[in-house]
Amino acid sequence: MKRAPLFVLAGTAAGLVGMLSFHTRPLTGTALASPASQTASGSHGQSPGTGQTGATARKSRSAGSASVPAGPAGMRSAVGATEQYGYGQLAVKVSVRGNRITDVTVPVIQVAEQYSQQLASQAIPMLRSEVLSTQTARINGVSGATYTSEAYAASLQAALDKLHVK
Amino acid sequence: MATDTPAVSHAEAVMGTVVSFSVVPGSQPAQSAARAIGSACAALHRADRVFSTWDPQSPVSRLRRGAATLGELPAEVAQVLDLCEEARRASGGWFDPWSIPGGVDPTGLVKGWAVEQALDILRAAGMAAAMVNGGGDIAVFGAPEPGQSWRIGIRHPWRADALAAVIEVTTAVATSGSYERGLHLVNPFTGQPSSQAASATVTGPSLAFADAFATALAVGGDAVLAVLAGLDGYEGYLIRPDGGEADTGGIAFG
User: DSSP per residue over B94-113, as a string?
Assistant: First the structure.
């Protein structure tokens, strides 16, 4: 993953709408997506054994190229506003080098209950790895449940097509 | 490689979705690539006309309501139903177009089959490599760039803008889930709507079967993952409704 190709950045720009506005306002992030997606992300990525023959639990994936040291030349970072996300408050810090996100962290967390703390501690690492992986993945196509011709416009595959169709 | 024709992309609205093409012509001229994509799209539109369950006058609609017999319909209807029967047996009954209320419905296999036909047309036209993505069900051949494999993102079931995984594909991958079109899958053993997966992905040599098995995996979850583990050439990757993940071990995660 030497360089994030343009199409991945475009996919990310679409992907980060509602979550981070670093693209247009580099020094003010905004907040996370919907609370629903956060709770969903919270349970995502846990890998219990299946108990089925022949099926193996997936190894959890690493957060990708997240370990970029802070502060080198050309690095910028921004902390978004503190936002309510259903189980408490948090803010997102994004580090950018050039056009590329190098790290996403969550420096401000206030959660309502013990339960939420648990949930948040699961949700946040996944959010981080997903943002990074969407950006750094050099992909040719996207497989998913069949979208309608109307829903295609909002799909990542459409973002790829837009960049390649002349 | 300086003389190679640059890759060509195309997006075609057909079969109720959009089919995306990514074609590497190699030494073939750009006009040949455009012609081959045109022929492939014509095949997709023909499959749409024959197999549409929305059009009451389509051959499959007439078959479903008993207004025509198999012998009176285009030969590909019988061919696809044979593949359905094969997929039904291989999936242990979890994929069963005959269990669907309103008559036999091959929809769970036919899009993969049609996309495979489209890819075969590109291959026969001498293209060096190609990817055809039928609304999320993908068939490929060749290498997108020399020495590279096709890298396919698996859409995150709860976020349209994120990936749950990236896998390397040499033949076909299909994904099923209820996040795009609601709970439309039926458990053949109960006749009730069912979903045991947030996302169900199957890879393998044939997209027709991968499509059918992905449908089965979405309906049956872990039970079908165990069936897939015993099938030669096919692999499954399941994201459960609670977000837990499991796979059959043979998928090349990138």
Answer: SS-GGGSTTS--THHHHHHH
